[in-house]
Every structure is written in structure tokens, then in C-alpha cells.
Write a structure and sequence with these properties.
alpha/beta; QueA-like; Thrombin, subunit H; 2 domains; 6-stranded antiparallel barrel; EC 2.4.99.17; queuosine biosynthesis; transferase; QueA; QueA_dom2
């Protein structure tokens, strides 16, 4: 597959700038792989497509407020810092992106907060934009994280053309978020309300969780036409024995496994074993999925409508079939579905 095959014309007005009023009342396109049929529903109708004994696998990562605004020592130049991941808790080392990168050198100090209460020193240049910062803070680790995150803002995708608002702290987070570490929200999960999860539980649909700490690599532009030459950024993930036992039990009983989001799709694919089963996994994954790809565990996928050229679109077409998904995208545009993290949903069966 070539990068140019994932180009399509997306009208700017279809990119959702705000979350829908109620999580489970976004629109949902249902795509049937076997027949090619496409249906138009409301998200909370998803329960009608699954039965007692099926399982939904969610990503329980928790987004932290990753964008900081600070000033460079001496010059006072304004610097935007995006926290990516904590490298070392004891030494308070963080992997970050900085803008404008050209103004920052090793040894520079950056000051954050109205009273410059948080100070960081640049100790390494890892890429043209990336840096390693050491935060200079005397309190314990929990106090430091609390103080750091109080200064941060939600890091919304660049296609959302506005500053973060108060509602984003809640709405750019799944209701089951638990393990802190993501910069990017697992957007498919944003559609699930507590009421919907309860209805699924009553119906006998199992719920299980893995953890993939989604990073900005999901939005990094691919700069090669030949997709086999693209290298994904690594993301930390965790697949527990409890999840493995549940999923493997469901498969053995001929029920379906539904991945909620492309991060879960990749997480499951990174932990497959023989015979359509899963195994435990703890570590990092840089698995890049694009068509054609043989999925042996996942039977259904919940996802959003993604941007042209995006890694998430490539994963979606790998699961649903390139021709069918691109046809569905044409229909989504003509039917004015909303795209992006705050947009509408697609269920592929």
C-alpha cells in the first residue's frame, strides 16, 4: 500500500471542534464486512449488535494535561512544551517536544507558572524537536506530579482549531480512564457512557481492559510513499493475565471480541499467540498495521472517522477492507458525519 492511497478530500466543516452533547448519542455508521451493507444509527444502538458472551476490550489509559507554556531564562522567550512521557521518576526526567525548537539548547533553563515556581533544565537534544528535561523540584514525586499537572493543559489534536476549554478536561477522557500515561485520548472510547456500559453488563456482554499509552506518534506525518518504510513511535502497553483469560475464553466459546479503538486493535495484535488466542505482554510496541493484515483475535472494531493519510485510517482499512472502508468514508462525507476525536463513530462487523 502507498501513502497516496489514503488521500481523500475532507471538508473542514466536518472536523468536529467540540464533543457531542451526550457521549452515547453521537451518530454511528455500521459497516458489515461480509455483505458490504452500511447502516446509519446512533451510538447507543451498538448494544443491539452484540449478544450475551461477547466481549468489548477497552483501553484504560488516562490522558494527562501535557501542554505547558513557559519562558526561557534571560531572554524570556515564550516556549511551548508538550510532555510525552516520564523517563525517570526519581530524577524527574521527561521526554518532551518544544516549540520553537531552534531557541532551546542543552543547559537552558525554562520557567513555568505565573510565579515561575516550576523550573526545568534541558539536558539532552534527542531529535530536531525533541528534548529531555530535568525538572528541579524539592518535593516528593506525587507532589511534583500534582504541581506539574496543575500547570498543564489538555493537548488536543492539531485539527481542533481552538484553545482547550474547561469541558475538555472531562470530555477528552474516557469514563473508565485509570492508568495515567497517554498524551492522546483513545477516542473511540469517548462514546461510552456509564448508562451504556451498565446496559451492556446487564445483557451479559463482558468488559475487559488493556493499557496502551497513546502518544503523538499517532499524529506524526508519514513522509514516505512506501508504507513498509515507515517506523512507528513506540508506545508502552500492558496486557494482563486477567484480560488474556477472558478473551481466550470468549474465543473458545465462539463468541466475538470487539476492539474499542485502533489503540486496542494494535494492542491485541501485539499480543497474539497461536490459534486465535492472546498472551500476556508488558513493554513497548511499535507495530504499524496497514492493509493487508490478518487479524486472528479481533472480530469487530469501534473507531472514529479519521483524517486523510492518518495511521488510524490505515489500521481501520486493514481491519474493514480498503475498498469498503474508503467507500464508507465517501458516504460519511456525503451524509455529513463528524470526523476526528470528537466526531462520530464507525462500527465494523
Amino acid at each position: 500500500m502507498k501513502l497516496s492511497q489514503f488521500r481523500f478530500k475532507l471538508p473542514e466543516e466536518l472536523i468536529a471542534q467540540h464533543a457531542s452533547e451526550h457521549r452515547d448519542e453521537a451518530r454511528m455508521m455500521v459497516v458489515h464486512r461480509a455483505s458490504g451493507e452500511i447502516e446509519h444509527r446512533v451510538f447507543k444502538d451498538i448494544i443491539n449488535y452484540f449478544v450475551d458472551g461477547d466481549i468489548f476490550v477497552f483501553n484504560d489509559t488516562k490522558v494527562f494535561p501535557a501542554r505547558l507554556y513557559g519562558n526561557k531564562e534571560k531572554t524570556g522567550a515564550k516556549i511551548e512544551v508538550s510532555l510525552l512521557r516520564e523517563l525517570n521518576a526519581e530524577n524527574k526526567l521527561w521526554d518532551v517536544l518544544v516549540e520553537p525548537a531552534r531557541k532551546i539548547r542543552i543547559g537552558n533553563k525554562l520557567y513555568f507558572g505565573d510565579d515561575d515556581s516550576m523550573v526545568a533544565e534541558v539536558i539532552d537534544n534527542t531529535t530536531s524537536r525533541g528534548r529531555t528535561l530535568r525538572f528541579l523540584y524539592d518535593g516528593d514525586h506525587d507532589e511534583f506530579k500534582e504541581a506539574l499537572f496543575k500547570l498543564g493543559q489538555t493537548l488536543l489534536p492539531e485539527y481542533i482549531k481552538r484553545e482547550p476549554e474547561e469541558e475538555d478536561a472531562e470530555r477528552y477522557q474516557t469514563i473508565y480512564a485509570d492508568k495515567e500515561g497517554a498524551v492522546v485520548a483513545p477516542a473511540a472510547g469517548l462514546h461510552f457512557s456509564r448508562e451504556l456500559l451498565k446496559r451492556m453488563e446487564i445483557k451479559g456482554i463482558h468488559q475487559a481492559f488493556l493499557t496502551v499509552h497513546s502518544g503523538l506518534g499517532n499524529f506524526r506525518e508519514i513522509d514516505v510513499e512506501d508504507l513498509t518504510k515507515h517506523r512507528m513511535d513506540s508506545e508502552q502497553m500492558e496486557v494482563s493475565q486477567a484480560l488474556v483469560d477472558m478473551v481466550n475464553g470468549v474465543k473458545d466459546n465462539d463468541h466475538r471480541v470487539c476492539a474499542v479503538g485502533t489503540s486496542v486493535l494494535r494492542g491485541i495484535a501485539s499480543a497474539v499467540s497461536m490459534g486465535g488466542h492472546m498472551k500476556t505482554y508488558s513493554g513497548w510496541t511499535n507495530k504499524f498495521i496497514f492493509p493487508p493484515y490478518d487479524f486472528t483475535v479481533t472480530d469487530a472494531l469501534v473507531t472514529n472517522f479519521h483524517m486523510p493519510y492518518s495511521i488510524m485510517l490505515m489500521m481501520t482499512t486493514a481491519f474493514g477492507g480498503y475498498d469498503l472502508v474508503m467507500k464508507a468514508y465517501d458516504e460519511a462525507i456525503s451524509e455529513k458525519y463528524r470526523f476526528g476525536a470528537y466526531g462520530d463513530a464507525m462500527l465494523i462487523l
